[in-house]
Structure prediction request, 670 residues.
Amino acid sequence: MGVPSALDVPIPTYPVPRSPTPSPRPVIETESLSPPTDVITTRAQAIESTHPFIPPFFPQIYHKTMSALRILVPVKRVIDYAVKPRVNKAQTGVETAGVKHSMNPFDELSVEESVRIREGKKTPVEDICVISAGPTKAQDILRTAMAMGADRAIHVETKEGEDLEPLGVAKLLKAAAEQNKSNLVILGKQSIDDDAGQTGQMLAGLLGWAQATQASKVEFTGGDSVQVTREVDGGVETLKAKLPMVITTDLRLNEPRYASLPNIMKAKKKPLEKKTLADFGITGEKRLKTIKVTEPPPRQGGGKVEDVDGLVSKLKELGAL
Amino acid sequence: MLSAGARAFSALTRPRFTTASTTTLRSPAALRRLLSALAVLEQRDGKLNQGSLSAVTAAAKLGGPIHAFIAGSNVKAVAEEAAKVEGVEKIIAVENGAYDKGLPENYAPLLVENIKKGGYTHILASATAFGKNLMPRVSALLDSQQISDITAIESENTFVRPIYAGNAIATVESTDAIKIITVRGTAFAPAAVGSGSATVEDGVDPKAESTTEWVSEDLAKSDRPDLSTAEKVVSGGRGLKSKEEFDKIMLPLADSLGAAVGASRAAVDSGYADNSLQVGQTGKVVAPQLYLAVGISGAIQHLAGMKDSKVIAAINKDPEAPIFQVADVGLVGDLFEKVPELTKKLKSA
Prediction:
């Protein structure tokens, strides 16, 4: 049974050292920033608090003192959505060399939403931290996110071909959320490369936090309460939860802004922390082995007809009417 | 007549099954006995969600015994209906209104407890909003890497799934002891509710508290067939120009065919159609008998949601639109002229 591996994540220690470079935004000193007094002292306590079926110690501490949001926004560098991916000759994957990459579109929505929460001024936002695991080039999209308004970035460098599976990413993010004392994680509902749609839910499960997936509206309703409208089959449903929580974004949530040139210049000065998987107690181990990747069977266009009568008779001929 | 899903499934998998049959699917009976599958079913207001029965169809491909799981208030009636589903041996039912809305915060621990108790090796659910929301959380609690939206099963640990908006098809082998799987409905037709006679058994209920509270829902009501399972789908895009035109042009066309209405992302983003009608990589995936694309250029994200349709027809004024590369029959022309004409001819036919 796999459950114990939730314990592989190292026990967080307090106070967590902050990034050496100070955040460019004024840090609002609040109670929630001071290290909690009821620090875990024994291994047994730590195990209990990280056990997936028992809510971790975090929420309880935060519920007492919550006053500002510390948002963690995971972003992923993917092949640009407008590019038609090609399977490589060896059938081991998709050709990525020399192909345009950009931020996963759903992650742009996450960054945008975080920045809008700050601009909405209803709930004080203390920190918006973007994080990405990937090769050095992932730093480009972290800079983009900072140009959109994120305060700082963490880049977890992985080697070429050492890409993580959603479960690995979720474990990394759990450690990152704890180290950065995040109380809200906003992720895209899926990345457009592996189309898995898992990371947010897995993270919420590992942390024992509330989750609201496929969000089309996020509202702070006072205190730690968040009301989220989510896209479901056939319509929408509305949920209410208390921080800390995990939200995943759907297309209708917002329209991401373009980074302006001055903001792109400013983003170059914002702090970007470089980390490794080991810093989060993660290995690149994979549970799924890719046997092969192939092109889908091609579809042949059947040609055109002159008019509506032609359309109707062709459809009848094809047995579609 | 075969449903659209069944056809899509057989077309997709038949060749693969012939090759796979020589390998793991023919494992010794002793090994086979270790395999047991749990299909997670959905219910709403005491009615079984037929779409969730795709999980049973997929489970049947694995070859071991199949149990089905259902939870909610007044679950007995649903359990009895589920007991008639062909191929299911046992229904695990949990009676508790706390699970009615399928909130993953308490549903995931519930499922995990029942998985552990039953010692299942494969947990399957349809890739519906419910399945997509719940299963990854279950997966994390069991420390298993989920396999999302599979379109074929090659063996008990090897699965086929589309990636990159369906532009590539990946075959993956899972090394996890418990395999958590979501199933693409268009690739596995829902199992028939018929002559099955499963036993119904109470499941364990850990009664975990949900950290989220369900507030309300707003579901679109429509007399038209359900988009994901419809035999015919007519879909409108940006070419419709406004919500008024969308309703005026597309709805009569749909009704003349008895079709469900879909939309491209462009149409949804522009507010012409409801988001729940979106067909594509991040919306619904459909594979009907007939897919008629109106004013849709055919971006790869849209094609990802409909290219397994049996017959694709397109009406577009741009002869170079990529949709014509996949359409079995295309008509170049102004949709505001051609579609009403088509609707009229279909009605009089």
